[in-house]
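Standup notes
- HV: blocked on the assembly model, inputs below
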Amino acid sequence: MKKFFTSALFKGLVWQVIGFFIGAGLVTGIRALMGLSTTDTFFFTEPAWVLGAFFGAISFLVGCGVTDDWIKWARGIETHDEHEEHWTGWEKYVNVSLDHKVIGIQYTLISLALIAIGGTFALIFRAELAASQLQFLTTEFQIFGQNGPQLYNTLMSLHGIVMIISILLGVSGIINYAVPLLIGAADMSFPRLNAFSYWIAVPAAITLISSLFLGGFDTGWTGYPPLSARAPVGMQMFFMGVFIAGWSSILGALNVVVTVLRMRAKGMTAMKMPIFVWAGLATSIIAMTATQFIGLAFQLVMFQRLFDMGFFDPSKGGNPVLFQHLFWFYSHPAVYVFILPGLGVISELLPVFVRKPLYGYRWIAMSSIGIALVGFVVWAHHMFTSGMNEYLRVPFMYSTLLVSVPTGVKFFSWVATMWKGKISTPTPMLFVLGAIVVFLMGGLSGPPHATVSTDLHLHDTYFVVGHFHDTIFGGFVFPFFAAIYYWFPKATGRRMNEFWGKVHFWLMTPSFFVVTFGMMYVGLLGMRRRIADYDPALGIDTSQLIITIAAFCIALSVLIFFINFFYSIKNGEKAEGNVWESRSPEWQVPSPMSLHNYPTPIEVVGEPYDYGLKDAPYTRFAPASKGKGKH
Amino acid sequence: MSHSQNKSAALMQGVIIFVYLTVLTILEYYVAVLFDAVPLLIIVAIAKAALVLYYFMHIYKLNETDHDENPDSYAFKTITNRLGLWLFLLSDSFVFAGLLVMRSNLLGLTRPELNQALGLGVTAVLLISSFFMNRGELQMAHGDVKGFMRNTAITFILGLGFLLGVVLLEWQIAAHEGLTADFGNPVTGPVGGVFYMMTGMHAFHVFTGLIFLAVVWNNARKGLYTAEKHWGVEAAAVYWHFVDLVWIFFYPALYLIGTAVAAH
């Protein structure tokens, strides 16, 4: 326990609180001097909460120690690169480490924590939705300054954004852990920046979730003004939390791009990289650029609230649709940030479990880049009903339908890869196959939204909700689980339990289909998004109940996964070799990986996916005599 | 060619580029006043940007390849650092692009009524600061630490001048003229808010640039940089020029393009 109180995490948290009070105190003091009000519903005024949250985040980062080296460099003091890990065991994960493998696991752990939190929110409001009319989230019910329906709106909104942040962090986790290993590097190009990008997530998540206790917010995760300009203080914590989390995305992505361009092993040309690296690169190009737009959009609403700068207030000459353009210019490419890594995991793992080369490597590599680029010009398909110029609907419909082409390329490649392969189905492969089927459902339910004539009827119904849960689970959640089951032995030297892994899969997958097809079904029958109550006359009560039960089944399967995960760290079956008989470089050294990954640098001497070919290695360890290896 | 001939040739090039930039700025101003031709203003801005990107920010250095395969060498790390810095600038430019999108969506072909002399003045100050920054970086590249410190100090003072010119002078005058940040003025509506938001975000970057300059100036004073090893200097200089680059687009967007909307 004492070890926790000396950890960077604890120190950061303490400093976050201190920083918060300094910021809030500063604003309150200035307001007092200006003769303005100094208190409000939640003690501090809104501007005080905002500056407090901002100072708190910066204070966390400085206080936890992740900026120490940079501060030293600014003062002209040299630092030395670490060659030893200071901590062992669980302490590694609550302290600042520059090792990308530790950081990757830290990202994964916080992602899993947020999945649990966001999922719990969903279970609560799904319980309410199980029958028409309000059951327990009634207007009489009061908590955290909200009545039942207001709490419903907050839970529904937070479910969305907490899950989205968990996806961004999970994506960072897989990419951080795997990419340096896959390219034969000792670490990322900028290890301190990497650590910094992770640690930002902690104050960001805290700020975001604090919204629940500050009156919540009712806009859904998209935070559109004018409604978001009027929502309670919790709205600002949402904006601030996402804004801070955005820095993590941007800086982390920048690191990945530089690493992939600069740190590849000898002989690893672009077309000989493991395919996941292409996925990571495409993802990072998006995250590094587009994210700035949501930062700007949110900053503008925050200023509208704080300083009355009516950017989106029509009565003052502002334009609410401008927010939507700025917001979706990021948020659409963001969904490709969510799914490109997962689709990369599928492409990476399939050859291993079908013992055949990846079909159409170049096409798949280019399709990741293609999706990333086309993904930038489709954003207004979220705005067909917004009141924007009608003529804009047509080009965006075409561009949106176009993005299914590179996506389709991946599907054809996966099928061709599996064709006549020697398929084995340990748990990682089950999740890969599940991902393909689930993502297919997501992809097929997409074009009705891309097509303007049908979208006008589907927009804001549960059909959309079914569509994006399919794409998100297929493109991220299933591959995330696949990646964890797959690389767990690499990280720990042990396997997760195979039986319970299968239970997780077989409980989650059918339940998940019930949930998403159920949502599409009730959506077509008139169930709107983002409402706590619905008309019994719609006749969807039974369907809603079934969806809720299935959602609880998914939750149970995830709980089983958590238990399996944490139990197997110390008690799993030992697995120190090449468990999956993969050709990938990281599996050619024993598990767990040592600190700087490859004791001898690797060189690429063949193709990555020549499974089944005799005498066709992919990598070898560099011959001893060459130059200056690592100490 | 001798070492010092290289240096004076490089310094002279800096002067010539600065002269081009000055001419283009004057041209820009008169094109705006006389013709109000938006495409022409955009072309001039792009030309200025290209000059700054190529000659001051030496973007072509991104093309340099590694002579030394050793990933621990200073040369290798510098190329990596340079790539990281440019990607950061690419990312940051999306913020400013978004602000320009906001400006055109909310204001269209109108603009705030601003003091043109002051606008030209602060623009000149920033451009001149870039000139001295370039000089300073070249001094350092040729081992003249004292020269670097002198020119960087001038850059700092000019940058501070820009900041004060915008925040203390321009903002006060604009507010006095009725250009308010809240969109409350029925005549100007969004014009004020857009103006303060754009100049504010830019000013924030000038401010962080000044901090960066102070840090490298101080470290130079401690003797930490040499002609061969001065990545911090290069980074600070490139960042400073980037701040100037943004203004190359923000100046016409706020001062020159469109019909002025007076607050009363």
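- HV (later): unblocked. Chain B touches chain A at residues 69-72, 79-80, 83-84, 87-88, 90-92, 94-95, 98-99, 101-102, 105-106, 181-184, 189-190, 193-194, 196-197, 215, 218-219, 222, 224, 232 (CB under 8 Å). The helical segments of chain B are 3-34, 38-56, 74-107, 116-141, 145-176, 190-221, 231-256.
- Next: hand off to the docking folks.
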